[in-house]
Design a protein that fits this description.
The chain is elongated, with a radius of gyration of 16 Å. The chain is built from 3 helices and no strands. The protein is mainly α.
């Protein structure tokens, strides 16, 4: 299988698939997984400890990613009205 080609500056952002509903579906899944996986194994203390650590990391990463996307595409216009992690 060939690797997907890199996107070039100025190309429109992807707005199909799960991006129709939220801006960062992968990060939303990561947040759910961080809590759900430990709970499957009854490790509620781990779930409660990991989530507060994850939140500031995700906030920083999302801000950096959105700033980069806004510089190189019409990201802000394409995703206006969509939530970051929740529809």
């Amino acid at each position: 299988m060939e690797p997907s080609p890199r996107r070039r500056a100025g190309e429109p952002p992807v707005v199909a698939g799960p991006y129709r509903f939220i801006r960062h579906p992968n990060y939303a899944a990561l947040a759910v997984e961080t809590v759900a996986l430990p709970l499957v194994h009854m490790a509620w203390i781990t779930a409660c400890a990991l989530f507060p650590i994850l939140v500031p990391l995700l906030v920083r990463r999302i801000r950096l990613e959105e700033a980069a996307l806004a510089r190189h595409s019409d990201y802000e216009r394409a995703f206006a009205g969509r939530g970051r992690l929740l529809p």
